[in-house]
Amino acid sequence: MSAQRAVRLDGQALVTGKAQFGTDVSIPGMLHGKLVRSSYAHAKIRSIDVSKAASLPGVKAVITAADVPDKRFWPPILDQSLFARDKVRYVGEPIAAVAAEDEATAEEAAALVEVEYEPLPVITTIDEALKSDILIHEEKSPYAPDESLGMRNVCSYSMLKRGDVEAGMREADLVVEDEFEGGMVSQLYLEPHAAVAKVEPGPFITVWTSTQSPYNIRSDIAQLLDLPASRIRVIGTKTGGGFGAKLRAIIEPYCIILAMKTGRPVKMVYSRMEEMLGGTPQTPLRIQLKTGVKKDGTLLARYIKVLMDVGAYAGDGPVDVNIALLIAAGTYKVEHVYAEGYAVYTNKQRCGAFRSVSAPQATFALESHMEHIAEELGMDPLELRMRNIWDDGYTAPWGQRLENVGLRETLRRVAETIGWGAKLGKNQGIGIACGITLTAAMHPSSATVKINEDGSVTVIVGAADSGTGAMYAGLPLIVSRELGVPLEKITLVPSDTEASPYNDGAQGSSTTYCAGNAVMAAARQARQKLLEAAAKLLEARPEDLEIRDNAVYVKGSVDKALTIAEVVEKTHYAGEEIEGRGSYVTSFPPYDSSSISGFFYVPSLIDPTYTAHAALVEVDEDTGSVRILRYVAGQNSGKVLNVDGLAGQITGGVAQGIGFALYEEMKVNEEGVMLNPTLMDYLIPSAVEVPKIDIVLVEDFTGSGPYGAKGAGEAPIVPPPAAIANAIYHATGFRARRIPITSEDVFNGLRGR
Amino acid sequence: MSAQRAVRLDGQALVTGKAQFGTDVSIPGMLHGKLVRSSYAHAKIRSIDVSKAASLPGVKAVITAADVPDKRFWPPILDQSLFARDKVRYVGEPIAAVAAEDEATAEEAAALVEVEYEPLPVITTIDEALKSDILIHEEKSPYAPDESLGMRNVCSYSMLKRGDVEAGMREADLVVEDEFEGGMVSQLYLEPHAAVAKVEPGPFITVWTSTQSPYNIRSDIAQLLDLPASRIRVIGTKTGGGFGAKLRAIIEPYCIILAMKTGRPVKMVYSRMEEMLGGTPQTPLRIQLKTGVKKDGTLLARYIKVLMDVGAYAGDGPVDVNIALLIAAGTYKVEHVYAEGYAVYTNKQRCGAFRSVSAPQATFALESHMEHIAEELGMDPLELRMRNIWDDGYTAPWGQRLENVGLRETLRRVAETIGWGAKLGKNQGIGIACGITLTAAMHPSSATVKINEDGSVTVIVGAADSGTGAMYAGLPLIVSRELGVPLEKITLVPSDTEASPYNDGAQGSSTTYCAGNAVMAAARQARQKLLEAAAKLLEARPEDLEIRDNAVYVKGSVDKALTIAEVVEKTHYAGEEIEGRGSYVTSFPPYDSSSISGFFYVPSLIDPTYTAHAALVEVDEDTGSVRILRYVAGQNSGKVLNVDGLAGQITGGVAQGIGFALYEEMKVNEEGVMLNPTLMDYLIPSAVEVPKIDIVLVEDFTGSGPYGAKGAGEAPIVPPPAAIANAIYHATGFRARRIPITSEDVFNGLRGR
Q1: What residues form DSSP beta bridges with A285?
Q2: Best CA proximity match to A651, nearest among A687, A679, A682
Q3: A571 to chain B: closest CA residue
């Protein structure tokens, strides 16, 4: 691994416990807020009686839908309100909120709010929803499929096609068909949602919140509360993990309304159970795959159908559906593709984004399907992959010409490292899987780099750091390299909608790529201005100058120099500042509009990150339990900027991927009640279940990110469920159709049940 | 008065008491700091014993010079340390600081610090200082005058000349000579210095402070604590008045060092007595004037000498000296000028800037001297002024060609309004005086104007608001006018070194001029970008579009429009932002370097603000007390942007000018001990002493400020002492040589004592 080592500018604060997370924010005079949640999955609200709650000593406000504007949010469907108005659609839906002097009183008051319900039939599965007479949402979604299909409760339809799938199937020597499922999974960040709102007359609103995107939060608040965005200041605190669940306003608007009502700042922090009931977990899905293949292993045609169970509100469902379609159509060459997807409402919790949305599940489906094809062909599954794997120059089904793929080399090295083909022990098996992460390279990002009058540097960028270090370790490295200023003199301004230029947040592994490109451009402009200012003072031409050791020298001269501080101070004094501004902007990928229909939006396809993983497992025949003996994670992240940070991301991502594979699922019963909403019931891998991860990095310097860097954070969560499922198959002959694959599943599978 | 009326965006918060001033900042876990001050005016420090203080329960830290880097600050002389090291130079000089759980404990602990002194001779007057064997500063100032002059304890020398003064004096029919003095005056802002510092490991420092210049404070902290400026974030709170005394780090570094020592946030708030002892009041000065004049009143030559008593540290003294020289050489045409000035150390409190530095005193001297000349010539003093007054096209002694003077018209209208020449009652007299305020138009200022996705506008500008409203009322008006967006949708980001572009603060009446020009340029760029983005979407050319009612229309079309919100949202979505950036930058005034020597720096001479005031007074012969019966204040502020704000500034400035004229002086005895450091002893005018002010505004739209606006805040404090002194003379024949002119002075003057 030939790459730079970085320090995190926030490292010392983090390890000494001094960093301020959302939960740490405290303002004198602050009240505490709590939500009152629905106990029914589907019911009309007959009445709400807040009188007992309001008269509890210490309670300062109780609010319901009547106290907020009747506005909706969460693009693209805009079907969510702050409070249920006429009916509730899931267990846990907010109905009212209280503010009290302390959290215990707020909780007590919340329990005193009396809601009278008229229960409605509860729909908890995709199949029920599609056929039901009951509509969960009476209002039709703008992206609903054609009514002639007779599909009920569908909030969005997406379609992508290339070539002629039916013709391709006819040409095929063999057609293989499969169906797979993935469950609902919690992001389970350590720090729950936490925010504090302070309202000054005007109103001028300040919100401190643990978020991945201060600008998204601001936009949501403006929309929900019908206020100008300019009057809302969102300051991002440190974020103790987000994984996609801290991209939209979950608790902030409640804090604001309560603060407006009471005239005092209001803080709200979710408990773990509130996170489980009121968060936005990974959306469950079902995926059908049908592939036509030649005897020699050439893939000819693929049909894909995704049915996504978005829960009671659309959330990111429509986006997640089309990403699932792209993933299932990816990483292997197939001429003819037809992919259709549907987001379906049920009376379950609303869902959202989770680290590389849809990809762990869709990749589990695709890579299990590839193994099935290899089996049917009697071909080594590695050979089948190598025969079809994407290379530079191939045009993906969505019309993008691929560059810097590096997947073949990554897969080759991963297979070599795990010892593919070696003789294994009893009940042992090796599984491999490839992955693509559609990093969100279309997120606009701007940055300002100010060189201060003492030669130190302040970087202002709208990026947020959800904990990965992409912001506080990666971006300063770029500035240091461009300006020749040591890291100790560089500071990044935390995300703040009033301090930072527009940016839509830490999502889609976009920080290094988008914010990094913006910061690089800004640093280069600042450097140029510095050289020009120094040139005037030194009576030289800018191109004859060089920067080293915090000073600007005339090239080749030892004496003729000014420190950076001197140049800036003199320039300030003359009425100018040394400041660079850079933007990263890109346009949408070049879809052929005849090849898509319905809702179609993809963050970006520029320089995706590719992965190949391999797992060696051993299965206990008597119990069905799976032990991962060895794990190899290969990744082509372009140029590696911060090798320790990348290794951390890969290790964490694989651990979460193991959770997806073997342990994690939020279970909901027929009444729509969650069965495991606490960490006593919800199973996650512990240090015992996560083996040491061997990391294989394939570098590449030709991409369009800074020095060729690609997004890194999401990619490693993608292949583990597939690699582990395939390893279980090779160890036992049991092919899992669903993740998580529990010991019970394996036990039953081995016994043909 | 034909001008616009404005609202202050912070008005509602201010009048409801919700605005957060420095004194209001509160952070959980915060300690309170107090300084230990010298009780001697000049003494060696033999020892400091902090043991008793440190062992007091509740005390968390006691620090002295040994705990801070040995660094100096306060440009241009850099002679001040945080704590006295070897000796103390004034009563009140900081020696140590303590931090404790509450303010009372901190105060108790401060009193327990034991300092052993070895007293040195105390110098309290300019005359003593110039001749003394004792040096207050052993180190020689870089701007000290030539040693051959034999002047001791001088920290700076400044000289300006034009023509040949001696030849001019020889040609004169009459030479008139005078000497005047002005005392030390407190700025007496309502809110004392108040700051809170929080230090996170790194260190990363955040300071909330009541300041006029977050960037200056940051720069001072970096210098004094030897830290990169990029690690220091200074956030300006609301400021309850500053008048020049909140431009440099007075208490912030102590808070930081105590916070570093204790690991807890530290707050410090000055008491009124600490303000009086440890603030930075108006510097006392003595000024000699000698003018050669022809019989017809033509001024031929003027010699000016200023001796300024800067106290124990130079502070702004060197700057104030040369501003006093320019003022005394100003507003009337004189061909030959020689002006020299000296800043002299004494063992008194360090001084600083006060609203229009040096000008009330220098103008008192100049305008009293003009009256004396008129008297000697037997000429009407108004006529003498009108004969010599500056007009457009005249070249000031410092080489600047004048434009937009408007002084003749202002003086004419003021004289007319007060009824110059009318018959008055017994012991009544009218005095008139002109003034020039060298507004600091050289302060660089940049601004960003962001149009948000809902059509609201965020303005980020490094300006600070010291309470005048120039920022929160004036700047939004400019943006509203340029973008056609109503004020309700516009927000200004409070000053913050991490949010705001570089700016050196609210000083020299520069906000409307410098920040206003920057904001106007930024708004125009944002407007242009908005039109370009809308043009793409509407398939039109930008020049064919217009903005009205929050929307962009094709000119002449009623339908073809997009709301501003739609344009911005679509543009964000395509990866761009609608943001304008503007800078105001100017170059130094064109001094002829052969005409100046020593320290010479003048904020700016672009578009100064001119004033003419007139006072009608009545003097009580028996007591010497002076009553102001009528007061007319005329001002040429260019284009008036906010007429209520300007009227407020004029009223307040005249009230403070009356204080200078008749009441205010900080008195120090021979031991260097201040005699009146509380509001029980220090006299200021109350509502009874301030008459209703008649305001005469002379508008002018040709200047280089926004729409022709000039700086407004400082100008009205300038002429009152001169106008009132001249009125007393006309009422009684008593010519005051010193301000404040107390009743006792008048009483004694009338009796020839």
Answers
A1: A182, A308
A2: A687
A3: B444
Given CB atoms, is A526 within the 8 Å cutoff of chain B?
Answer: no
Our CA-based measurement puts residue B219 at a distance from the nearest CA of chain A, in whole angstroms, of: 8
Residue A513's SS3 state is helix
How far from chain centre, in Å, is Cα A471?
Answer: 16
Rounded CA-CA distance A42/A36 in Å is 16
Name the percent of chain B in helix, strand, coil, to the closest 5: 30, 25, 40
Question: Touching check for B226 and chain A: CB below 8 Å?
Answer: no
Structural domains in chain B plus CATH codes: 11-120+193-269 (3.90.1170.50), 285-440+592-750 (3.30.365.10), 445-584 (3.30.365.10)
pLDDT, tens digit, for every residue of A424-459? 999 999 999 999 998 766 777 889 999 998 999 999
Whole-angstrom Cα Rg for chain A: 27
Nearest Cα neighbor of A328 from A308, A348, A352, A350 is A308
**Residue of chain A whose Cα is closest to the Cα of B202:** A12
Tell me the residue length of chain A. 753
- Rounded to a whole number of angstroms, the distance from the CA of B10 to the nearest CA of chain A is 8
Interface test with A, best of B230, B264, B443, B510 (most A CBs within 10 A): B230
Burial class of A692 by CB neighbour count within 10 A (0 to 12, 13 to 18, 19+): exposed
pLDDT tens-place string over residues A634-688: 999 899 999 999 999 999 999 999 999 999 999 999 999 999 999 999 999 999 9
| CA A342 – CA A145 distance, rounded (Å) | 8
Tally Cβ neighbours within 10 Å of residue A383: 12
Between A165 and A582, where is the model more confident? A165
Sign for the CA dihedral angle at A201, A204, A208, A210 comes to positive
Six-digit token string for A414: 């991963």
Among candidates B233, B489, B579 on the partner chain, residue whose Cβ is nearest the Cβ of A501: B579
Min CA distance, B307 vs chain A (Å)?
27
Q: Which residues of A14-45 are buried (b: 16+ CB within 10 A; e: fewer)?
A: beeebbbbbbbbebeebbbbbbbbbebbbbeb
Give CA–CA dist A89/A311, Å, rounded.
9
Cβ-based neighbours of B425, under 8 Å, separated by 6 or more: B618
d(CA B408, CA B78): 41
Check CB contact of B579 with chain A, cutoff 8 Å: yes
pLDDT tens digits, B441-464: 677 788 999 999 899 999 999 888
B8 touches chain A (CB under 8 A): no
Q: In this structure, are strands B204-209 and B194-200 parallel, antiparallel, or unpaired?
A: antiparallel
Contact residues on chain B for A443, CB-CB shorter than 8 A: 575
Instruction: Give the span between the Cα atoms of B699 and B693, in whole angstroms.
Output: 18
Neighbour tally for A629: CB within 10 Å: 14
Which residue's entry shows tokens 């009183």? Answer: A105
pLDDT (tens digit, 9 = 90+) per residue, A529-564?
Answer: 999 999 999 999 999 999 988 899 999 888 889 999
Q: Are strands A609-619 and A428-437 parallel, antiparallel or unpaired?
A: antiparallel
d(C-alpha B684, C-alpha B188), whole Å: 9
Q: For A77-107, write each residue's pLDDT tens digit.
A: 999 999 999 999 999 999 999 999 999 999 9
Decide if B309 contacts B324 (C-beta within 8 A): no
All residue ranges of chain B with pLDDT < 50 are 1-3
Give the ipTM. 0.83
pLDDT tens-digit readout, A585-640:
776 556 667 788 888 876 557 789 999 999 999 999 999 999 999 999 999 989 99
DSSP secondary structure letters along B245-298: TTSS-SSHHHHHHHHHHHSS-EEEE--HHHHHHHS--BPPEEEEEEEEE-TTS-
